[in-house]
């Protein structure tokens, strides 16, 4: 047992930042393969479950959220300790744009940043959980999973304190979201609305913070101060979190302005759908004779087709 813990400790504290950066630079095609496999499995899984009953996988979902919460909390505490040692001696510009001490990226920093990238890959499994439970997908869910994986993979090519800051915010929000998901899967929210609102709020804060950091770094990149970051990474970050921020903002605005009409049968259209409000604000959109989508606060739902046409013949 001591040998196992010793090996784990050597891996965590012996990892060099240049090894992580070299691995990411030398294997840029890996993330592309992962995305292609994800899309293929998503389409096959959607087709496989179209005419089948949903699976009861509450136990694995709870275990996944528990492991994810514990691991994210450990990453949050570690990154917070590293940031605590950096902020007193560095300004925000130095934290986000300058890189003059590569020692801070070794050991714990390199391990937890690389682990966060791997975690982004593993989080693609959450789509499988939704698929097997025949729960709807949203545009934000699929877009964020794929684009965040691209962003963090390519951002790790440059050694910046901003990587630690991005990783800290990611671990922090992920730990909170995992705990809320665990509570919701355990039935602690009888109305199924309060925790869902809190989860959506966490995703909103994360997107706004990331987008704000990307804007800050982009501003200094074109200013006299400069910013030691690749322009392609800035464009990728702005595209990823800009789209998510706009989507979230427009959805919140439409909801609070009551611009989306309530459809009487929308809550019955998708079994297992968890809405953010007791009376869901939805709008039915016809795509074809057998598949419908329902626009909600979190985006466009893609429910499973049951092979039965819902169109009414015109009289």
Give an overview in words.
By secondary structure, the protein is mainly alpha-helical. The protein has one domain. Helices cover 65% and strands 4% of the residues. The chain has helices at 2-14, 17-26, 28-49, 58-86, 92-97, 108-122, 125-132, 139-155, 161-185, 194-222, 231-256, 266-269; strands at residues 283-286, 292-296, 299-301. A three-stranded antiparallel β-sheet has the order 1-2-3. The longest helix has 29 residues, at 58-86. The chain is globular, with a radius of gyration of 21 Å. The model is unreliable at 259-315 (pLDDT under 50).
List the helices and strands and how they pair.
Elements: H1 2-14, H2 17-26, H3 28-49, H4 58-86, H5 92-97, H6 108-122, H7 125-132, H8 139-155, H9 161-185, H10 194-222, H11 231-256, H12 266-269, E1 283-286, E2 292-296, E3 299-301
Antiparallel strand pairs: 1-2, 2-3
Q: Let me know the largest β-sheet.
A: 3 strands, antiparallel
Strand content: under 5%
CA-to-CA gap between the ends? 75 Å
SSE pattern: HHHHHHHHHHHHEEE
Relative helix content: 55-70%
Structural descriptors:
mainly alpha; 65% helix; globular
In brief, what are we looking at here?
With 315 residues, the protein is mainly α.
């Amino acid at each position: 047992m001591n040998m196992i813990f010793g090996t784990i400790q050597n891996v965590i504290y012996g990892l060099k930042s240049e090894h992580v950066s070299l691995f990411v630079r030398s294997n840029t095609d890996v993330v592309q393969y992962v995305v292609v496999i994800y899309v293929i499995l998503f389409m096959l899984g959607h087709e496989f479950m179209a005419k089948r009953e949903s699976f009861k996988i509450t136990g694995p979902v709870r275990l996944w959220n528990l492991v994810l919460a514990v691991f994210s909390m450990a990453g949050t505490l570690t990154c917070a300790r590293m940031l605590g040692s950096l902020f007193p001696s560095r300004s925000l510009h130095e934290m986000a744009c300058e890189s003059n001490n590569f020692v801070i990226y070794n050991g714990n920093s390199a391990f937890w940043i690389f682990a966060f990238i791997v975690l982004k890959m593993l989080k693609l499994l959450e789509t499988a959980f939704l698929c097997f439970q025949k729960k709807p997908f949203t545009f934000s869910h699929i877009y964020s999973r794929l684009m965040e994986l691209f962003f963090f993979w390519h951002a790790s090519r440059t050694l910046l304190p901003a990587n630690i800051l991005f990783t800290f915010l990611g671990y922090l929000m992920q730990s909170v979201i995992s705990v809320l998901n665990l509570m919701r899967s355990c039935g602690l929210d009888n109305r199924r609305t309060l925790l869902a609102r809190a989860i959506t709020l966490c995703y909103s804060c994360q997107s706004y913070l990331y987008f704000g950091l990307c804007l800050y770094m982009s501003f200094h990149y074109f200013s006299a101060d400069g910013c030691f970051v690749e322009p392609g990474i800035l464009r990728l970050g702005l595209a990823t979190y800009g789209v998510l921020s706009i989507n979230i903002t427009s959805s919140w605005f439409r909801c609070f302005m009551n611009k989306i009409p309530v459809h009487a049968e929308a809550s019955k259209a998708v079994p297992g759908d968890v809405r953010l409000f007791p009376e869901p604000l939805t709008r039915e959109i016809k795509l074809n004779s057998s598949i419908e989508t329902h626009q909600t606060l979190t985006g466009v739902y893609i429910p499973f087709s049951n092979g039965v046409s819902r169109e009414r013949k015109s009289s």
